[in-house]
Amino acid sequence: MKTISNTIKNIGYKIISLGLGQQSTVLYLMSSLNIIERADYAIFADTGSENKTTYVFFEWLKNWAKQHKGIPIIQVGRNNLYNDLMATTSGVRKRFASIPAFTRNEEGKIGILRRQCTNEYKVQEIFRGIRTLYQLKPRQRMPKTEVWMGITVEEKERAKFSPFNWLTYVYPFLNLRTSKNDFQRTEYTSLFRRSECTQWLETNGYPIPPKSACTFCPFQSDKRWLELKTLSPDEWQQVIMLDEAIRNSTQKGVKQPVYLHRSATPLAKVDLQTNQLDLFNAECNGVCGI
To answer: What is the number of H-type helices and E-type strands within the chain?
Structure first.
């Protein structure tokens, strides 16, 4: 691991936010192969609740990195989001990071709960990983750092300005860099769409990563719920248990019943269809699902 030097203090690391979806995987592979500028590290923030197929793919990617001198991958994540949610609903655990579950108001209108999970289990864990790489003490200032994200053209609305002076967000597939108060166009690669990421993987003989998200994430289509139910019945049963467990969340300040499905009905009773779109474009940080 590199130690912090005067040069590093001024320049800092280039970090790929590795979500293990198609886009961030292509970004990682292209950067590792020097097709685009090579980053220093890639960080995977593990919620402990990804689909089993994602963890299988992660093992493949780590093996590929060893064999091809890929960018070092750092895995962070201290807690399991599923276990934490189950513990809070049972009263065993008081700390509560809400997920974007659905509920109805007194008039019957469906609304969505405030989402804290992405920030606490993804963003803050990545920042913690960066501090560890720099070997910083608790109150020591963060050096200038770039965090690269694999957001593609059709999801460009997910590109955000940096919230901190030390942090620059880089979107190589958009040829865009954003600081706290400004943005800059720059040349990294050709503008990419998600479909072109898939094509690049297929053309170069790489496996296609599964969709990256927590198994119980409410931001997914009926098609994905149905795939989970059909292909991974054990994980489906765990999700059903969570859906039932969060129903009464009055101790967390939610008066109305809470549901994982967008229809605000019990997931086990939903007639799952295959033609609904995911809601990941509504996800306000470019971390989950890429």
So the answer is: 9, 10
Domain housing 33:
6-282
The answer to whether residue 231 is domain-embedded is yes
Indicate whether 1 belongs to any domain.
Answer: no
How many CB atoms within 10 Å of residue 232?
A: 16
Kindly state whether residue 287 falls inside one of the protein's structural domains.
Answer: no
Task: Please say whether the beta carbons of 151 and 19 come within 8 A.
Answer: no
How many domains is the chain partitioned into structurally? 1
> Contact at 8 Å (CB) between 165 and 171?
no
Supply the CATH number for residue 114's domain: 3.40.50
Asked whether the beta carbons of 237 and 216 are under 8 A apart, the reply is: no
CB 43 within 8 A of CB 176: no
* pTM over the 0.90 mark: no
Is residue 289 a part of any domain in this protein? no
* Residues 174-231: tens digit of each pLDDT: 999 999 988 888 888 778 899 999 999 999 999 999 988 999 999 989 999 999 999 9
Q: Tokens representing 231?
A: 């292909």
Q: CB burial class (10 A; 0-12, 13-18, 19+) of residue 269?
A: exposed
Side-chain-side CA neighbours of residue 80 (13 Å): 9
